[in-house]
Structures are given as C-alpha cells and as structure tokens.
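Extended Data, record Alkylated DNA repair protein (DNA oxidative demethylase)
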Amino acid sequence: MDDEPSRLGDGAVLVPGWLGIEEQVWIVGEFRNWVAGPVPIRAAKVRGHEMSVRTVCLGWHWQPYKYTRAATDVNGARVLPFPDWMVRLGQRALRETGHSGAEVDAYAPDTALVNYYDDAARMGMHQDKDERSLAPVVSLSIGDDCTFRFGNTENRGRPYTDVRLRSGDLFVFGGASRLAYHGVTRVHSRTAPEGCGLTTGRINITMRMTGLTD
C-alpha cells in the first residue's frame, strides 16, 4: 500500500491514512449522535428512486437537488449545526494538501453530507454541483474500504481512475477538478481496521461550502 499522497487530477489529492485511529473512533462516536436526530439518517430519493446510501446532514440539509435548513422531505426538523471542529479539520485538510494560506483562511465549510454505506451500497457517478460556491470538497473515509471512481468534468464515462479508499483516508478536490464526476462502485466488506469504531460498513463525510445564507 502506498502511503504517499497522490494526485488524481488538477486540484484533486488523496492522502492515505490521514486520520489516526483515535480520531476515527471519536468521529464514529459523533456520527452515532448525529443519526439519533433531530433528523434521522435516511435514504434520499433521486428521481423517484431510493438511494442505497443513507445520509445524515449537518448545517444544511441536502435533498435532491437543493439545500434547506429544515428537512422538509423527512420530518420537517432543522438539522444539527455544522460543528466548529469540522471547520478546523477542513482547513487543516486544505493546508496539508498544498493550498495557500489565503485559501485555507477563506475556507469556511458550512455543510456536511455524512453517508453510511453497507455492503450493498453504491453511489452512481455524479457531480457535486448543488452548491453556489466552488470551494474545495473535503472527503473523509472511515470503516470498510471502497472502490472510488474519480472521473472527468464532461461526462460519467471515461476517462476515470479507480482507487481504493481506506479507513482514515482524506480526499480533497477543488480547482479544475471541483466538478469532476465521481462515485463508489463497490464496498469491500470486512476490511475495516480493528479499533476504528466500525465493525461493518463505511462512513464518508464530505464537507462543503454552500455559498448560501439564511
């Protein structure tokens, strides 16, 4: 396994093992609090079809294809606020993937989509384009490995690169890669490292700047 950062595209950097085991365990504990409410974890419906991935949101609630403060497609409750520690974590992620001091200082993520994948879950190729801001997306993985497909900005087909994301990995994509199509083609069951806080499944946190105001 290569532990060195790798570049998947212009503005797209993968850093293996970025989160330590203790950080992973702590975040999994937070995840259990998030799914307890006020808005429960749920599978969103895209064009009438329920996703295999289940999502809980922080800061802003994502529903295809918009952000709202209240989960009007679930129970009408307001989602939990975006935590300050996650802002600091996002800024650290940019700093450690070569972004300038000005870019780091300007990075103020205000929403997180926290996805839970079981063994059968997949994520089709898509662009993260519901945000008004094109600030980088910071992605963190905990639990089972997955095969992550990172593509181009023009369509869902080739060229794309398949990489294995493991527990603790950081992936940041911005700049020319901000609107690249990407997805998850497979979750590899029973690959979570011992002591990470999850015995099965995968948590993926993507933090973003929406560019929205109340």
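Summary. Residues 6-208 form a domain with the Jelly Rolls fold (CATH 2.60.120.590).
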